[in-house]
């Protein structure tokens, strides 16, 4: 977890070093959430890329392991009861759902199929789904499951990071940090520098400060290249 106040103070210190302008708490919160989502979503692109590359035997430098550790923070699960008519479960109500993982019934993973395969598999007595070998297909937020006697499922998923908030109280017309009103970044501690760089780049665009934007963008690019070497 990265402390939101630490990031804000460092962003202010860098932005104000050459009198570039003040970043308000409202502006910071907007930039902070955008930066957090940019980094979070990049995990999955990077994981796909590095999964195609042979890893190494070093426990603490294998990129796939590092990315999976960062993603694991957001793994969650929820039990969903099927509808009374049987055979369907709605995942639309899952809070902050980002990506659907496995779906299980009584500890047995339910196989995901395409709709056409789902219809075909039910026709043959040899492939007909059973409680020991259930299947489903997904259409929108609805999971259609066979056999119909599956009355509840456990859904494993990746959730979105919670919304970041630098909370404050106003004293003598000055915003003072208030931890009780604040929400920290949920990203791994190692992302603190990247968050600062990305927030500065966004601030540079808003303040029409090309120098600040270019410096932050160059640092961001340098970090990305270093990570992927």
Number of helices: 6
Our measurement of the CA-to-CA distance between the termini, rounded to an integer number of angstroms, reads 26 Å
In what range is the share of β-strand residues?
15-25%
Strand segment count: 10
Molecular shape: elongated
* Helical content (DSSP H or I, runs of 4+): 25-40%
Residue windows where pLDDT falls under 50 for at least 5 positions = none
Q: What's the number of structural domains?
A: 2
**Order of secondary-structure elements:** HHHEEEEEHEEEEEHH
Q: What topology does this entry show?
A:
Layout: H1 4-16, H2 25-51, H3 63-72, E1 75-81, E2 88-90, E3 97-105, E4 108-109, E5 111-112, H4 115-121, E6 135-139, E7 142-146, E8 152-159, E9 168-171, E10 174-177, H5 192-206, H6 210-227
Parallel strand pairs: 5-6
Antiparallel strand pairs: 1-8, 2-7, 3-4, 3-8, 6-7, 9-10
Helix pairs in contact: 1-5, 2-3, 2-5, 5-6
Notes on the protein architecture:
- With 229 residues, this protein is an alpha+beta fold.
- The chain has 2 domains: 129 residues, no CATH class; 85 residues, no CATH class.
- 39% of the residues lie in helices and 21% in strands.
- The protein contains 6 helices and 10 strands, in the order H-H-H-E-E-E-E-E-H-E-E-E-E-E-H-H.
- The chain has a 4-stranded antiparallel beta sheet, with no helix packed on it. It has a 4-stranded mixed beta sheet with strand order 2-7-6-5, with no helix packed on it. It has a two-stranded antiparallel sheet with strand order 9-10.
- A hairpin with a 2-residue loop joins strand 9 and strand 10.
- Helix 1 packs across helix 5, helix 2 crosses helix 3 and helix 5 packs antiparallel against helix 6.
- It is elongated and about 75 Å long.
- The two termini are 26 Å apart.
- The mean pLDDT is 85.
